[in-house]
Write a structure and sequence with these properties.
Blueprint (H helix, E strand, L loop, with lengths): L25 H10 L1 E6 L6 E3 L10 E3 L17 E3 L7
Antiparallel strand pairs: 1-4, 2-3
Length: 91
């Protein structure tokens, strides 16, 4: 099942370094809309990024604590994404 990619409305300002239509799903565009972005930071260094380990799977998967959490792939997060405005450095 593929994720639907959307074009952000013209009034939303997303940094060019963050916007790659082929890789940003609606949930990340929503985060930029609500909170803006933190230029030069990625989600990897944010304390809100949850690392769910391997969980019996062959790969590691991440979730954002600011989003609705599920056990499915639709809410998986990418550590390489440009951080939103709610970015907080990990201790």
């Amino acid at each position: 099942m593929s994720q639907q990619q959307i074009e952000p409305p013209a009034w939303i300002v997303i940094p060019p370094s963050a916007y790659r239509p082929e890789s940003l799903p609606k949930r990340m565009l929503d985060m930029y809309t609500l909170f803006g972005s933190t230029e030069g930071k990625t989600c990897r260094r944010c304390k809100n990024l949850l690392d769910n380990g391997h969980g019996g799977h062959s790969h590691r998967y991440y979730k954002c604590d600011l989003q609705r959490l599920t056990n499915g792939p639709a809410t998986d997060w990418r550590a390489r994404w440009l951080a939103c405005g709610k970015f907080e450095d990990k201790p």
